[in-house]
Amino acid sequence: MSEALIEQQVFIVDDDEAQRDSLVWLLESHKYKVGAFPRAEDFLAAWNEKLAGCLVLDVRMPGMSGLELFEELCRRRSTLPVIFITGHGDVPMAVAALKKGAADFIEKPFAAEDMLRLVDDCLAHERGARTRRRSEADTAQRLAQLTVREREVLDLVVAGKLNKQVADKLSISIKTVEVHRARVMEKMGAQSLASLVRQIVAVEADEAGR
Amino acid sequence: MENAVADDDARERLEAVLDGLEAAVYAADARDGEILFANRAFRALHGADTAGWVLHGLVVPLPERGDYRVDPRGLGAADAPCELFDGELPQPRTGRWYHVREQAMRWVDGRVVRLGIATDITDRKKTAEIARQQEERISRTARLITMGEMASMLAHEINQPLSAIANYCNGCAARIQAGAGARELQPAIQKAAAQAERAGKIIRRIREFVKKSEPRRSAVPVAAILDEALAFAEIDARRRSMRLTVDIAPGLPDVHADRIMIEQVVLNLVRNGFDAMKDASGEECTLTVRARACGGRLVEIAVIDRGHGIDEEDRERLFQPFFTTKDDGMGMGLAICRSIVEFHDGRLAVESNPEGGTIFAFTLPVEDAARE
Q1: Same domain as A33, residue A125
Q2: Which residues of A touch chain B, with CB atoms under 8 Å apart?
Q3: Domain carrying residue A176
Q4: ipTM score of the complex?
Q5: How distant, in Å, are the alpha carbons of A42, A52, A87, B122, B142 from that of B22?
Q6: Which of A169, B106, B166, B319 has its CA 20 to 30 A from that of A63?
């Protein structure tokens, strides 16, 4: 299963039929793939962690409000960026949403190009984030395949030690270090020492960030 | 002899039962109102031993007042028994309310009497009254919704079709550029047209609403206007920990005005005042509403805040529609306030408060002057 093939979609949740339908039309006219839902509850029912793209959400809706949906998605660790559509006087609500991690908000009535630009930014951001998450998962998987000794060699090499220093530290011969090192590069799928370091740093940064 | 003792026993038992009742029970001569019997509750109610009194000024229906459909004073023995009265009466001394039922009966000695029972319904009545007042207040609140809120609601309503139209049109433009044919575009264009109609309907609805709420002017005491409007403002004031003082000059004549509309103006100005004072503290958190005569033919109502004030430049544009200094304002409130006041042949003016803050003052014609 290749995640790269998952198509990004713009999800729209808006209770106003005209608003929703016209936004679908606008986005489809610009070649986006769109999914639309009249109620927050409907989107929540359709949601799963594999959805890719972004979410355009009306703040004011009867039943579950846009803000409540957003909070529920945060609880479910959704990674979809969220753009809020706000009406007159909703700015404080939108600011609250931004503080909680919403991507952006746009005030009604909005210019089409503003909406398209926001959607574009969000999709690019989400694509990048997803690629990053994928390669980190890949790195973690590869790391798990290393032997204990190989992991020791890797850690020292990434820490900037020369082969000789690694050999001294682990009390093995330089020759053996070279063999381990070659196996590490192969198992990690690293083309160069630099790319190996980058992989490890990314994973560690992510772990530290959690 | 034994019979008489038995009769006395029976009478005592009956009186004990009647005295035990919470309701006041009495019997009085139908012709002259002389009280022949009164139980304990009735005596307590009137604060004295009532035997031998006449039913006058007590919580009972009075023939002189026209409380009866059939005057009991003219009833003969043949007319009894019949129902005389069933209604609610106040006790003027205590202000409590009683449900009173009276029947005409033949007394033991052959006279026609009014036999009555009065039940205290003050609490029940009070509950009902509170419920009624609340209901009235709610419906008034609905009408007193401030113009700013009204404008905001309208903006939201009109926004929906407008942004839909924009979306359909922008989508069409993109598709035309990409070489789309008429057939592909048609549904979106039709939908855009339908949305334009929707916007039109909203505007028509506003127009009808405005027509329906055409002003009805009459003589209104200034105090009544301020009481009602400030009852709502009080709630606001408490929530914002601000003080509201009212200063009404004594002996003001009635004004010729649409009460609800002027209440709206006052409420709007007061809320604006509160908004202006949101960063004030202590002594400065007091807003004053003052009413006084202004020559013989006008009454001036002034809303005096101690807030941040308004600079010269903003003051020029203050009454223009859509001009606002608030983050979430529509800029409609003052414009509408001024139209309402001008409709009443008054003037709404703004000046700086020498003690800091702003004074909004408007005039209304007094009732007599308006009628001339």
Answers
A1: yes
A2: 16, 18-19, 21-23, 25-30, 60, 87-89, 91-92, 108-112
A3: 145-209
A4: 0.72
A5: 61, 76, 61, 14, 42
A6: B166
